[in-house]
Design brief:
Layout: H1 4-20, E1 31-36, H2 39-47, H3 55-67, E2 71-76, H4 83-89, H5 93-99, H6 115-119
Parallel strand pairs: 1-2
Length: 120
């Protein structure tokens, strides 16, 4: 089992990565909804406050949101109800496609400006 701080880092990294994906879209979103089962991740992105070790991750995400004029909307969904996140995190891609037939699943390459966080 991963230490809780490492779990939080990967949850926050997934949100940051999702925000960075808007740079590859033809049409920019006005609002980006993200659902998480981690209340700490939701709190970090809603309050724009993080422990110093996570600041570069948060700043990276905020830079994209400002540059592309996108409003982030985070919502907490308890573990038991978050079956989509569960399917993704366990690589149950068949179940994911059953739940969301038009889903597109991509490999994750973290933004280069936040990789220093992983090294500390």
């Amino acid at each position: 089992m991963l230490p809780m701080t490492l779990v939080f880092f990967f949850e926050a990294l997934a949100v940051c990565y999702t925000i960075h994906t808007i740079t590859n879209m033809d049409d920019t979103l006005a609002k980006l909804p993200i659902y998480t089962d981690n209340p700490n991740t939701m709190s970090m992105f809603n309050s724009l406050w993080a422990r110093p070790v996570y600041n570069s991750l948060l700043l990276s995400a905020v830079d994209i949101l400002i540059t592309y004029n996108v409003n982030l909307w985070m919502e907490h969904i308890p573990d038991q109800q978050n079956i989509i996140a569960d399917a993704l995190s366990w690589f149950h891609n068949k179940l994911m496609k059953d739940l969301v037939p038009l889903v597109q699943i991509f490999n994750c390459e973290p933004p280069q400006d936040i990789l220093e966080v992983a090294e500390t």
